[in-house]
Specification:
mainly beta, 6-stranded mixed beta sheet, 5-stranded antiparallel beta sheet
C-alpha cells in the first residue's frame, strides 16, 4: 500500500499526458512526448437542411498519437450566419432561412468547420378566391399562394401546374403568362387545382347560366394627357344580380380611333387632342365612356432640324419633338398642326413635309394645344449641278427590293437629299421597276439581269447600276428572336433574308407578316408588333415560301424587378447616352425591356429621356445636376414594375472628335462604316456616332448617312467629316 501511494503521482501525470498536456518530466529526469489535439472534423449526414428543421452535427478530434475522440458535446459551436442557421452547444443545427452558413467547432485553438445549406420547402398551397361564381363566356384569374417551411409565403401562380376537374365546365390556363386564368364554358361546377410536386391546393368554380344585362365602363369620362395610357375596366351586371369584371372578354372599340386607340384588353392610348368614345360590347349588350385627350402634360415643342435652307424645287421633312412633364420626349410630328407664314415661299403638309415654292424666307410653326415652336426656312435660288445615286453598284436577288438615295449638289456648294424630288426610272423594266408613288427611290426586281437606275431633276441626272441575280431565298431570321411587351406598347421587328449565294438582305418591307393570335399581339405589314392582352404569340415573316418566326410574350404577371443600366451613369450637357432596362422574372430569367417600358426623368431641366421609337431610353443632358431616370412596365390590370438609375449631368466640354477609321479605301459599290469618339474636358471618351452630323466633301465620290455609313458613288477621294457643338473631326475615304 505504501509503495502504491508513492507511485500514485506518477500515474496521475501519465494520465494527464495522455489527455493532451505538454511533455511530462519525471523526478528521475526522464521525459515522454505529450499527446495533443491536431485537428477537428465536423460532419453532418445531410448538409442541406430545410428551413425550420434541425440536423445534428458531429465533431471528431484527431490526436498526435493517431487516436480520435468524439468532441461533439465538449466543443464550442458557432455559426457564421445565424440568420440562415443557428447551432446549439451540443452541435444541433436549426435552419432559419434560405441561404448558406459555415458551422464551426472549436477546442482550444483548434477548429473545424463544415458548410450547411438551408432551403425552404413548400408546405402548402392556397388558391384564391376559394369559391367563385361566374357567367358563361367570362373568365376568372386564380392566384396560388405557397406557404414554406420557414413560415414565409409567396405568390406561386406562375410556378405551379393548373388543372380543371371538368374542362367541359371550365378550362384553366397552364401557360405563362396567363397561368391560373379560368374560362367559363358551360353551366356547372369544377374544381380548380394548383399543384407543385406532391403539394396542391384547390378552389371551386361555379359557372352560372345568368344572362348579361348591362356593361359599365370605368373610369367614366376620364381625361388622359396625350401619349399616355389609361386602363379601362368593363363590369358586367347579370340577370341574377351579380356583377363581374369582364374586361378581357368584351370587344373593345374606339371612335374616332385617331383620338384614342384601344387594345383588346381595354388599354386606351391618347393619340391626339379631342374626345373619343370607348365602347365595350358582348353580344347585343354594350357600354361606353368618353375619353378626353388633352395636352396638359406637354411642356414644350422643338423642331429637330432648326433653321434650315433648301433649294427651290426641293423639299424636306421636319420633325416635332415634344417634351413632357415627366421628363420624357416623344416624336409628335403627326400630332401637331403645321403651318407656313408665307406659303408663296414654302408650304408644309400635315406630316411635316415642307415643299419649296419660290426663293424667300418663311416661318414654319408646329403647334399643339397652347404650345408651339417655329423655325426659319429659307428657299434659295441655287440650281442643281449634279446628282449622286447610292448605292452606286449593287446586287440583289430576284423577288426583293432595294431603296436608293439621291443627293443633289447645288450651285451654292450646298448638298441636299432629294430622293423625294427627283424622277426615278429604270433602263429595263423587265429587270427592275421604280416606285412612282408613296415612298420614292424603291426598286422592285422583276427579272434577272442588269438595269441602270436614274434619278433626274430638271436636266440633271444621276445613275446607279443594279444587278439582279437568280439567288434563291434560303432562310429568314427575325430580330429580336423573342421579346416581351406590355399591352399598348409597340416594338419593331426586322426580317433578314439569307440567300443561296451567301448574301443577306433586309426583307422587312416585302415580307408578309402575320401573328398566331391577334388578340394577344397584332403586327403591321412592315413588322411593327403591338401588345394587346396577356399571352404568348408567334410572329411570322414569310417570303417566297420561306418563313422566319419569333416569340412575343405580352405580360408582366411574372416580372419581379427592372434594372436600369448602366448604374448611375454620367453624361456631359447636350450629349446623349443610351440606357437599357433589363427585366428579371420569377423564374430567374432576364429580358431586355428597353423598347417595352415607358421612360421618365425626374428633372427635365437637368436631363430628358426619349420614348420615341428607335431612340427609346436615350437620355440627354440639359444642364449640370442629377436626375432620376425611371423605366416603368405597365402590366395587364394596372400593376406596374419600375427600375431607376441616377443620371449625373456634368459641365464637361467637347474638346475633340476622333473619326475612325482615320482613312479607308474601298472598291466602287462597297460601303464603309465610320464611327466618331468624343474626347471631353474631364477626360471622358464617348461614342457620338449617332449624335454627330456627318458630311462628305465630295458627294460625287461618296455620300454618308446620319449613322456614319458611307456609300460609294464613283472613284476618287472625299473627306468624311463629323461635327458636333462646333467641333469637327475628319477622315479620308478613297473609292477605287
Amino acid at each position: 500500500m505504501t509503495k502504491f501511494l508513492r507511485c500514485f503521482p506518477l500515474i496521475v501525470l501519465a494520465v494527464l499526458a495522455g489527455c493532451g498536456g505538454g511533455s511530462i518530466t519525471t523526478n528521475s529526469g526522464g521525459s515522454h512526448p505529450a499527446v495533443v489535439l491536431q485537428s477537428i472534423r465536423v460532419g453532418m449526414s445531410n448538409p442541406s437542411l430545410p428551413a425550420g428543421a434541425t440536423g445534428q452535427l458531429t465533431a471528431t478530434g484527431s490526436y498526435s498519437d493517431g487516436s480520435s475522440q468524439d468532441l461533439t458535446t465538449s466543443a464550442t459551436w458557432s455559426s457564421s450566419n445565424p440568420a440562415v442557421a443557428t447551432v446549439s452547444s451540443t452541435g444541433l443545427a436549426t435552419g432559419k432561412s434560405n441561404g448558406s452558413a459555415t458551422i464551426t467547432a472549436a477546442s482550444g485553438s483548434v477548429t473545424g468547420a463544415a458548410p450547411i445549406t438551408v432551403t425552404i420547402a413548400l408546405v402548402s398551397i392556397s388558391v384564391s378566391p376559394a369559391v367563385r361564381t361566374i357567367a358563361i363566356s367570362t373568365d376568372q384569374q386564380f392566384k396560388a399562394t405557397g406557404t414554406y417551411s420557414d413560415g414565409s409565403t409567396q405568390d406561386v401562380t406562375g410556378a405551379v401546374s393548373w388543372a380543371s376537374a371538368k374542362s367541359t365546365i371550365a378550362t384553366v390556363s397552364n401557360t405563362v403568362p396567363t397561368k391560373g386564368l379560368a374560362q367559363a364554358v358551360a353551366a356547372g361546377s369544377s374544381v380548380i387545382t394548383a399543384s407543385s410536386g406532391s403539394v396542391s391546393g384547390t378552389a371551386t368554380l361555379t359557372v352560372s347560366s345568368a344572362a348579361l344585362t348591362s356593361i359599365a365602363v370605368t373610369p367614366a369620362n376620364s381625361t388622359v394627357p396625350i401619349g399616355l395610357i389609361q386602363q379601362l375596366t368593363a363590369t358586367g351586371t347579370f340577370a341574377d344580380g351579380t356583377t363581374q369584371d369582364i374586361t378581357n372578354t368584351v370587344a373593345w372599340s374606339s371612335s374616332p380611333s385617331n383620338i384614342a386607340s384601344i387594345t383588346v384588353s381595354g388599354a386606351a392610348t391618347a393619340l391626339k387632342s379631342g374626345v373619343a368614345t370607348i365602347t365595350a360590347t358582348s353580344g347585343a349588350i354594350s357600354g361606353n365612356t368618353q375619353v378626353t385627350v388633352n395636352t396638359g402634360n406637354l411642356v414644350s415643342i422643338t423642331i429637330r432640324q432648326g433653321n434650315i435652307s433648301i433649294a427651290q424645287g426641293t423639299s424636306t421633312t421636319l420633325n416635332a419633338v415634344g417634351l413632357f412633364n415627366d421628363g420624357s420626349t416623344r416624336d409628335i410630328s403627326n400630332q401637331v398642326t403645321w403651318s407656313s407664314s408665307n406659303p408663296s415661299f414654302a408650304t408644309v403638309q400635315s406630316t411635316g413635309r415642307a415643299q419649296s415654292v419660290s426663293p424667300g424666307v418663311t416661318t414654319i410653326t408646329a403647334a399643339l394645344g397652347v404650345r408651339s415652336a417655329s423655325i426659319s426656312l429659307t428657299v434659295t435660288n441655287a440650281t442643281i449641278v449634279s446628282i449622286s445615286v447610292a448605292p452606286s453598284i449593287t446586287s440583289i436577288a430576284l423577288g426583293t427590293q432595294l431603296s436608293f438615295t439621291a443627293t443633289g449638289s447645288f450651285s451654292d456648294s450646298s448638298t441636299q437629299t432629294i430622293t423625294s424630288n427627283v424622277t426615278w426610272t429604270s433602263s429595263d423594266s423587265t429587270v427592275a421597276t421604280m416606285s412612282t408613288s408613296g415612298a420614292k427611290g424603291i426598286a422592285t426586281t422583276t427579272g434577272t439581269g442588269t438595269a441602270t437606275i436614274s434619278a433626274a431633276l430638271g436636266a440633271v441626272t444621276g445613275t446607279a447600276q443594279l444587278n439582279v441575280t437568280s439567288a434563291s431565298l434560303a432562310s429568314i431570321s427575325l430580330t429580336p428572336a423573342t421579346s416581351i411587351l406590355a399591352p399598348a406598347s409597340t416594338i419593331q421587328w426586322t426580317a433578314v433574308g439569307t440567300f443561296s449565294d451567301g448574301t443577306t438582305q433586309n426583307v422587312s418591307t416585302i415580307a408578309n407578316w402575320s401573328t398566331s393570335s391577334s388578340s394577344i399581339a397584332t403586327v403591321t405589314s412592315y413588322g411593327a408588333v403591338t401588345g394587346q392582352s396577356a399571352g404568348t404569340a408567334v410572329i411570322t415573316a414569310s417570303l417566297q415560301g420561306i418563313s422566319g418566326t419569333a416569340n412575343i410574350v405580352v405580360e408582366s404577371a411574372t416580372l419581379t424587378s427592372i434594372s436600369v443600366l448602366p448604374s448611375n451613369p454620367s453624361v456631359p450637357e447636350s450629349i446623349s447616352t443610351g440606357l437599357s432596362a433589363i427585366g428579371t422574372f420569377s423564374d430567374g430569367t432576364t429580358q431586355d425591356l428597353t423598347s417595352a417600358v415607358n421612360w421618365t426623368s425626374s428633372a427635365a431641366s437637368v436631363a430628358t429621356v426619349s420614348n420615341a421609337g428607335g431612340t427609346k431610353g436615350d437620355a440627354t443632358g440639359v444642364a449640370p445636376g442629377s436626375s432620376t431616370i425611371t423605366a416603368l412596365f405597365a402590366a395587364p390590370g394596372g400593376a406596374t414594375t419600375v427600375g431607376t438609375t441616377t443620371l449625373q449631368v456634368t459641365n464637361a466640354t467637347l474638346n475633340a472628335l476622333d473619326v475612325l477609321p482615320s482613312s479607308a479605301s474601298i472598291t466602287l459599290g462597297s460601303p464603309q462604316s465610320f464611327a466618331v469618339k468624343g474626347i471631353f474636358s474631364d477626360g471622358s471618351v464617348i461614342d457620338l456616332s449617332t449624335q454627330a452630323t456627318w458630311t462628305s466633301s465630295n458627294v460625287n465620290v461618296a455620300v454618308i448617312n446620319a449613322q456614319g455609313l458611307a456609300s460609294s458613288v464613283s472613284s476618287g477621294t472625299t473627306t468624311i467629316t463629323a461635327a458636333l457643338n462646333g467641333v469637327t473631326g475628319a477622315a479620308v475615304l478613297t473609292v477605287q
